[in-house]
Design goal:
343 residues; alpha/beta; 5-stranded mixed β-sheet; 3-stranded antiparallel β-sheet; 11 helices; 51% helix
Length: 343
């Protein structure tokens, strides 16, 4: 048995030695900045690796974006406390999307090294220009928000609608403020206590919070008497009840009739039918519109296609079931409130 094992042991040792020699990228041979980026209070650093210089830089930029997202996420608990009744679920759903749109155009490659078939890149992004960029974006969003707050033409519902359409801008402003605070929170040298010092608060931050809080209060005040009514000529069984539930989830009420404080949700359908022998091919299209002051504020469309051997009535029933399921999955009310204009 020992005579049989010895050749196998020698073969394994030879393979292991060959694998080590063939792999030139041992941890000790990596650039030092790959494992420990330069310390700096003026810039953010990120590293990337790839089989080409382009891929390594792209991966470094992705790492930089992820680093910024994490920093903003660390600030969200502060923001949500200040929000009050600020549709937090809506904000949480869109946070990662908006933060990923932070421009990294000013990030520069500081180091690039090729070792074997791999490239390594060190990326640097100055804090000050990024802070200035985000401050400019906040100012632009606040101008749009405050313009909507001052405009009161039309019905109370129309004014609420104009305020509601500023939710994405307000959310971006909160996120950009969080990012600015993170970028300012420079990690100072540890004090004797072992804790890092905190930067002095910027008075502009408090002003931004006050202006956003004024928007939140205006939005909340405008929806206290707000109601929705249905004009349902679709005859899709269960659809109006489902949308009623979706409105309730948004803390919005349904009215028995239309008034100046009421938005009208109009539901209509039209069918395309072909009969091929015993088969009924039905395409049922549902159009949903939100209207106020004789204006179509938003509209969306769903479409269901079915084939039935049980006649037209069964085809319509199956199409309606599909439409209601789609309306639940896609949340028609959320799409309308987002200002969708799909048809």
């Amino acid at each position: 048995m020992d005579k049989m094992l010895k050749p196998l042991i020698w073969m394994f040792a030879a393979w292991l030695l060959t694998a080590c020699v063939a792999n030139p990228l041992q941890r000790s041979s990596l650039p030092a900045w790959m494992t420990q980026p330069p310390p700096s209070t003026d810039a953010l650093f990120a590293t990337g690796q790839g089989i080409s210089l382009y891929e390594a830089e792209r991966n470094a930029r992705l790492s930089m974006a992820a680093q910024i997202r994490v920093q903003v996420s660390d600030q969200l608990n502060i923001r949500t406390v200040l929000d009050g009744k600020f549709h937090r679920d809506y904000l949480d759903q869109t946070t990662s999307v908006n933060v990923s749109e932070v421009s990294l155009s000013q990030a520069a490659v500081m180091e690039q090294v090729q070792q074997g078939v791999d490239w390594f890149v060190l990326l640097r992004l100055e804090r000050a220009p990024l802070i200035a960029q985000q401050q400019h974006l906040i100012d632009a969003d606040l101008r749009g928000i405050e313009r909507a707050m001052q405009e009161r033409a039309g019905s109370p519902f129309l004014h609420w609608w104009q305020l509601r359409q500023q939710l994405p801008a307000a959310e971006r402003a909160w996120d950009n403020l969080s990012l600015i605070q993170s970028l300012r929170a420079v990690q100072a040298a540890p004090a004797a206590s072992g804790e890092a010092t905190k930067p002095a608060p910027d008075p502009r931050d408090a002003q931004i919070r006050q202006r956003l809080s004024a928007y939140v209060e205006a939005l909340n005040a405008s929806d206290r008497q707000l109601q929705f009514s249905f004009t349902d000529s679709s005859r899709v069984y269960g659809l109006a009840a489902l949308m009623d539930q979706q409105l309730a989830a948004e803390q919005l009420r349904v009215a028995a009739r239309t008034s100046a404080d009421t938005g009208e949700i109009e539901l209509t359908t039209h069918d395309e039918v072909r009969q091929l022998g015993a088969e009924y091919h039905l395409t049922r299209t549902l159009d949903v519109r939100l209207k106020a002051d004789r204006q179509v504020l938003s509209q969306t469309r769903l479409q269901a296609k079915v084939v039935s051997l049980g006649g037209r009535a069964q085809a319509i029933l199956r199409a309606d079931q599909k439409l209601v399921a789609m309306a639940g999955e896609q949340n028609l009310v959320a799409r309308l409130l987002a200002g969708e204009q799909s048809p």
